Amino acid sequence: MSHRIAVIAGDGIGTEVIPEGLRALKAVAERFDIALEFQTFDFGSCDYYLEHGKMLPDDWFEQLKDFDALFYGAVGWPEKVPDHISLWGSLLQFRRRFDQYINLRPCKLMPGIKGPLAGRKPGDIDFYVVRENTEGEYSSVGGKMFEGTEREVVIQDTIMTRTGVDRVLKYAFELAATRPRKKLTSATKSNGISITMPYWDERVEAMAAGYPEIAVDKFHIDILTANFVLHPDWFDVVVGSNLFGDILSDLGPACTGTIGIAPSANINPEGNFPSLFEPVHGSAPDIAGKGIANPIGQIWSGAMMLEHLGHQEAADTLVKAIEAVLESGDAQLLTPDIGGKGTTQSLGRAIAEHITA
Ligand code: NAI
Ligand code: MG
C-alpha cells in the first residue's frame, strides 16, 4: 500500500528546502521499501494569491482530504501579501478544517549545534511539547462594545470543552507511554486563571488515573518557562493549552539552538483527515534565493511524517542521518546558520547520502 503525500512548497525558502526534504524522504523510502507517492500543488503561496486573488482554490478541501499527509514548506511574503491573509488563507485553514488538534514539536539538542544554554550537551535536552491546536484561549467568542467611548469594552473568552481537553491529554499520555522516561508535565495557571485552568488540572488528574505507569507533574506557566531554561533536562512530554503550548513550543526549540533545524507536526490522530508536517521557520525573505537555507527543519519534519505513517525505523534512521552529518562538523556541508560554508543542497545531499550508504 502506498502513502499519498500532498506537497506544498509555499513561499521563499519553502521552495528551496522542500526539494531537500523530498530527497531525504525518497532515500529512506527506498532503503526501507516504503511506497510514497508525491503530488505537488502550487496553491498555498503568495504567487498563487497574486494570480488568483486567493490563497487556495475553492475546492482545496476536496482536492486534499484523501491524502495521507501534507508536506508543507513555508508560507508568507509580506511585501506581496499581508501575513494575516497568507497565513489565515492557507495554513490555518488546513489546521482547522482537517481538525489537526495536536501541534507537536520535538525539542532536542543535536550534536554540533551550539544551543543558547551554557553547559548542555546532546542528550541533556530531549523532550516534546504537545500543544492543543483548536480551542482554549484562541477562541472567536467575544466582542467589542462602546467602541471609541470612555465605556469601551473588549471581551474574549477561553473555550475549553471536555472533548477538546481530553483528546489532547490522551495524545500526550500515549506519547509519554512510548518514551523511556514515561514522564508527563502539564502547563497550568490554576492559581490565577481560576475557572478554566482548575478544570484543565482536573482533566489531567482524571486522565492520569488511566496511565499509572506515567509520572505526572505540573507547573504554573510562569515558573515552567523559567524551568525550560534552567532545567531543560527535567522534561519528557510537556502538554499545554493553545496559548501556553504556543509559547512553550517556541521556547523549547529555541533552547536547543537554531530555528533552521526545528520541525513540527499538526496532527489529526484519528486519521480522519491528513496531518500536516512543516518546519517551524517561515519563508525567510532575507535569505530566500541565495541557496543557503538550512534544510534540516524540513527534513526532520519528513521524519515526523514517516513516524505518523507508522514507519518508526525509517523515521529514526532519518533523524540519525541528520545527527551524523551535524556531528561531522564538516563546514563544506553545513549551512551558514550553523557555522558552515555549504548550501541547502550540499547539506541535503549529505543527509540523503548518509541514509543510502
Ligand atoms: P522566518 O522564520 O522566516 O525567519 C526568521 C529568521 O530566521 C530570518 O533571519 C531567517 O533568515 C532565519 N531562518 C529561518 N529559517 C531558516 C533556515 N531554514 N535556515 C537559515 N536561516 C533561517 O520568520 P519571519 O522572518 O518572521 O517571517 C517571514 C515570513 O514567514 C512571514 O511572512 C511570516 O508570516 C512567515 N512565517 C510562516 C510560517 C509558516 O509557514 N509556518 C512560520 C513563521 C513565519
Ligand atoms: Mg508560535
TrEMBL record:
InterPro entries per the UniProt record, alphabetical: ICDH/IPMDH, IsoCit/isopropylmalate_DH_CS, IsoPropMal-DH-like_dom, TTC_DH
One Pfam family matching this protein: Iso_dh
Superkingdom, natural source: Bacteria
UniProt entry keywords in alphabetical sequence: Manganese, Metal-binding, NAD, Oxidoreductase
Its EC number(s): 1.1.1.83
GO molecular function annotations of the record: D-malate dehydrogenase (decarboxylating) (NAD+) activity; magnesium ion binding; NAD binding
Named cofactor requirement(s): Mg(2+); Mn(2+)
Catalytic activity: (R)-malate + NAD(+) = pyruvate + CO2 + NADH
Domain Isopropylmalate dehydrogenase-like: residue ranges: 4-351
NCBIfam families tied to this protein: TTC
Name the UniProt record assigns to this protein: D-malate dehydrogenase (decarboxylating)
